[in-house]
Amino acid sequence: MAAAQWAAMTASPALPPHGPDPGSVEELLAFDRDHVWHPYSSALTPQDPYLVESANGIRLRLRDRAGEPREVIDAMSSWWCAIHGYAVPELDAAAHAQLGAMSHVMFGGLTHEPAIGLARRLVDLAPEGLEHVFLADSGSVSVEVAMKMALQWHLAAGRRRTRFFTVRGGYHGDTFSPMSVTDPVGGMHSLFRGVLPEHVFAPRPPGGIDRMPDDPEFLAWERETRALFGEHAASVAAVIVEPVLQGAGGMHVYSPHALAVLHDLAREHGALVIHDEIATGFHRTGPLWAGAGRRRSDLLVDSAPDILCVGKALTGGYLSLAAVLCTSAVARGVSAGEAGGLMHGPTFMGNPLACAIASANLDLLASRDTAGEVTRIEGGLTAGLERAASLTSVADVRVLGAVGVIQLREPVRAAEVTAAALDRGVWVRPFRDLVYTMPPYVTADDELATLTAGLVDAVEDVHG
């Protein structure tokens, strides 16, 4: 049989140039409701999501149930990753250029310039001493890799340390190892207790970025934490923590003094330190890294970790990609073990398209006064959310870098607050007792004023 004949017989049917006819908004949403499972949702009582038609700058273009369009400011940076907003020319150009060369190639036995270039940039940006880069698929997977790395490091040295030490209130991802170091009671994964490995949880550090080490609450926390670590020190492979800001565990802000205590304990007892900067990295809390170079009193916290996880903002929200960075001591120790290397290898590891976009994203960050942008946003959030503190339903208002939080005295009526904010031109996704925002860094002052007013008004309308 001729080659042309065989190709014609086996070819897949051609799709229409722009995909199948999407039908009406109502039809799309009906199919979504019946067949598409959304994050943290039920198939029995499905969510009622909003249909996004496009995104540009810091705005989402939605379609309502009648098919009418409306534009809203994205207060969430698409779960904290779209730090430059949408349709970013520099990132679009990087994607187009890389597609012209290759979109993917396996990383086992092969390498390529996009991965090498990204690794070089990450090593240059990372806290001192982090010189080896392992590229992963997502933030949760990067935590899996970091924990595996710590375990292998101890095993290679003949130490069977199998537990991790962390603080309550944390969140590290939804796959099994990250779930095991996420708060076992107040977190989203209490359902899996008894199945997950049991690790060691110290109390949550007292709140407040400026909390001093001689504060009575801090001293009590430190005493309890040191005693707990001492009880389990022989079995602890590493401390794992979200530095200074706990994200999905409740947007809890705590003092870098607490981070210093955790570092001291790890160093004293021969454990490693893992910083999960998936949510906090790349200036979200102000500095490039939340856990290194932040001032405590008049001193700088010496808190560079042994292992660092980064993700979310790494590609500017374009593609899923994460990275694990570690010291040479950790890399050599793992590699000297019986396995001869780190036992992990994702299919899409080092994806060239994602790496090229990530490098362009980091170049864009470096070309701007990103720290200055975040300082400006911090000021706008502080001023704009201040009025919420006077509402009877509000327990606390706090701002750190480009993170603004309104904490309620009761669980948030999320669907109602979301709808009320949308009526004011703002997209927000509250959870637990929190109405919060992590806006793109490029949000202008007038847009920030609209955003904060929309959140405060929505809380007042729904909760009083």
Automatic annotation (TrEMBL):
Q: Which pathway does it serve?
A: Cofactor biosynthesis; biotin biosynthesis; 7,8-diaminononanoate from 8-amino-7-oxononanoate (SAM route): step 1/1
Point out residues bearing the modification N6-(pyridoxal phosphate)lysine: 312
Q: Where is this site: Participates in the substrate recognition with KAPA and in a stacking interaction with the adenine ring of SAM?
A: 40
- Enzyme nomenclature, EC number: 2.6.1.62
User: Which enzyme type, at the first EC level?
Assistant: transferase
Keyword annotations from UniProtKB, A to Z = Aminotransferase, Biotin biosynthesis, Cytoplasm, Pyridoxal phosphate, S-adenosyl-L-methionine, Transferase
Question: Where is the protein found, in the record's own terms?
Answer: Cytoplasm
Q: Which residues does the annotation say bind substrate? A: 79, 171, 312, 345, 429
Q: Could you give the subunit structure recorded for this chain?
A: Homodimer.
What protein does this entry describe?
Adenosylmethionine-8-amino-7-oxononanoate aminotransferase
